[in-house]
Amino acid sequence: MEIFDEALATFAEQCGYWKMDNQQSPIVEAFNQGMDAWKDNQQAPWGRLRYSIIQENLRPHLGQAPQQIIDGGGGNGVESILLAQQGHYVTLVDFSTEMLAEAQRSAVEHQVEMRVKFHQGDVSELLQIFPANSFDVALFHNVIQYTSDPQAALDSIFASLRPQGLLSLCTINPHSEVYIHALRELDITTALDRVEAKTKNANLFGLEHKLFAAEELIQMLSTAGFKFVTQYGVRCICDYIANNEIKTEPEFFAQLEKLEMTLRNKYPYYLLARIYQLIVQKEP
Q1: What is the pLDDT of residue 1?
Q2: Over the range 220-236, which residues count as b (16 or more CB within 10 Å of their CB) and which as e?
Q3: For the chain, where are the E strands, in sequence order?
Q4: I need a labelling partner for 99 at 20 to 30 A (CA). Which of 38, 40, 143, 176 fits?
Q5: What is the pTM of this model?
Q6: Confidence class of residue 203 from pLDDT cuts 50, 70 and 90?
Q7: Cα angle vertex 40, ends 35, 41, to 5°?
Q8: How many CB atoms lie within 10 A of CB 12?
Q9: 1-48 residue pLDDT tens
Q10: Cα 177 → chain centroid
Q11: What is the distance between the alpha carbons of residues 71 and 11, in angstroms, rounded to a whole number?
């Protein structure tokens, strides 16, 4: 293990690994400790759907490989590695040391270590790490709800992108909170309480995070300088099915994935998805 860790450290240095000097904050520690639960979630049917649907939504907007992509808050690198396998060059930025270490191991395992770089840092301070106009595409998936200053994070990503660069942003749909409690949990009282909810307790990491309506984020993106392109839904059906066991059955999962892929960009279904995905473009 020591030999592997030493080799990994050497590889990280060669690939441009950049480490913050500040001490670990409580939120960083929560993500470090929550890594195993996060990996289990990624392998669950709903996790697999999340990645396959997001990738399908992103596919028509990506330019021909190789693109220079920044994966802001990319965690343990699942999406970075998928994109590297498609021939893109990806820079993963995250503030969790455990997530970054796992991403590095995975990059080596999938033999894409020469296409992925790793940086420990805050997405709100990208210009402290990279020159402006460095990237063609930015991913900001499942991250904005944890940022202390969401507008600063969006401004930072905008500055890091080249003119006409694309941003893909995903976060929890606050409207889905009502449906989750009313339909899945049959808890009408809690559903009523969640109608105007602005925060949510994150079960995996034990952190309370913000909830943003799509319209609210589109306005914030416009303030940063982005132009709206389109909106997709991620898991329009899956999260409202109470029986998780049936989702593990291959035949049912295949049918569910086909349905989800059909509904992801169809009105009004994408508006009710558990997660929404916004595609926006940097104005020239």
Answers
A1: 39
A2: bbeebebeeeebbbbbb
A3: 68-72, 89-94, 116-120, 135-141, 161-172, 199-202, 207-210, 226-234, 275-282
A4: 176
A5: 0.91
A6: confident
A7: 95
A8: 21
A9: 333 344 444 444 444 444 444 445 788 899 999 999 999 999 999 999
A10: 19
A11: 19
